Amino acid sequence: MKKSLLPLALLSLSFFAQAEEGYYFGAGYNISASENSGDKTGLSASFGHTFPLGSTFAASSEWLYTDLGKHGGYDISSIAWNLKPTLPLSDTMHVAGVFGTNYFFQESEKDKDNKFGISYGAELGLRLTQHIQVNTGYKIFNAKSQVSSMYAEFQLRF
């Protein structure tokens, strides 16, 4: 009985949270891995706009640069346009899906293999103040090899 009430309680919380419109800059740190290599670290930078979808839901449209490190002999980075549908869980917390179209820069000592691809994942965000938010999430990139990445991001919202 108690287990079935938890999803209902979370849904009821989301109806009281208001989606807010605004722009943001972000800087992040990611740890990525692929079948061909161990864990690699990199940095990311983003700029986006959040807009409400009705009174409860929101979506963000963002540009994101990500350095994924060296995988399968290739240094991989990407520029992506992401769409992030967001469900507020409370006034300070949200959960979001992340869907992106990417241009991957893939270079090795022997050649370049730049191409378009996709990425997808999910994130959990916490607003610390009116202008500061932190997010953590998991994404999968379909690049030269499939790369998965866990990330933490700091955002300045205005």
UniProtKB/TrEMBL annotation:
Q: Which residues form the signal peptide?
A: 1-19
Q: Which species is listed as the source?
A: Vibrio nigripulchritudo
Q: Which UniProt keywords apply?
A: Signal
SUPFAM superfamilies assigned: OMPA-like (SSF56925)
Matching Pfam families, A to Z?
A: OMP_b-brl (PF13505)
Q: What is this protein called?
A: Putative OMPA-like protein
- Annotated Outer membrane protein beta-barrel domain ranges read 5-145
